[in-house]
């Protein structure tokens, strides 16, 4: 499998050159789009205070052929997004290529090759996101406050992979992805991951969207499996279940993760449960949440949080978050942040 990742890398570069070469004459529609996000926050805790920043800028070129086939090349440059939600920049590096991938869209579904989140993470990432970030907010950058398990559990993150997702049929979408090993083309995701020597990472994700009268809901399940290259650490095997309900400006969501002993010394199962409720009315938003993590008896961890959000301009928001965490360390964290999108 060690030869597969370089082959994928070469395939991406070759396909990118070919795609760009045919842009002017490939079909009826040629479209270039861009978007970006910048975040800054002052975080205060019993251990002191810190200032955090994160950013990402994404460019995408898409062509649509006469037959309706869509081809696109997407690249995101920024501060990294290791184990962040699909809509959040991270702080994995000062400057890196967060993601870069090729996409083929057709009536038969979506096929991607490159650095992109896997099928399980894409399926279960349902928590509402206010400006403060909530579960993946910058308060976790303070020593001692970060949960021992990410609220989405262990996955392949932005490792170079193949990803296929079916069209959404009667509300249901299925995704499957494969990464030869936990490594990406540019971003150094491996050093951030305990037991990082995974190989043959497979992910399966199911997502269902539906409505009951005025209530919209979303249900999801994800499964991740991989072999550990370290005989002292357990193979990766993670099960994820998630649900979200929306009514007017109200939302409620839950994510449950069972990581087993993935990437850890053999021992108790590592589990995580996250509950979140939020309300948005015009430019204002509020959220309450709780996360309970049990990596083993000696490291049980609970965090309780409340967040407020105020959109002061069309795409610029202020946030105020307060978090109480209890585990091997206990304390409070306060975050005052700003987020701008364009």
TrEMBL record:
Gene3D superfamilies: Porin. Pfam families: Porin_4. GO terms for molecular function: porin activity. Residues 15-323 form the Porin domain. InterPro entries: Gram_neg_porin_domain, Porin_dom_sf. GO terms for cellular component: membrane. This is Porin domain-containing protein. It comes from Niveispirillum cyanobacteriorum.
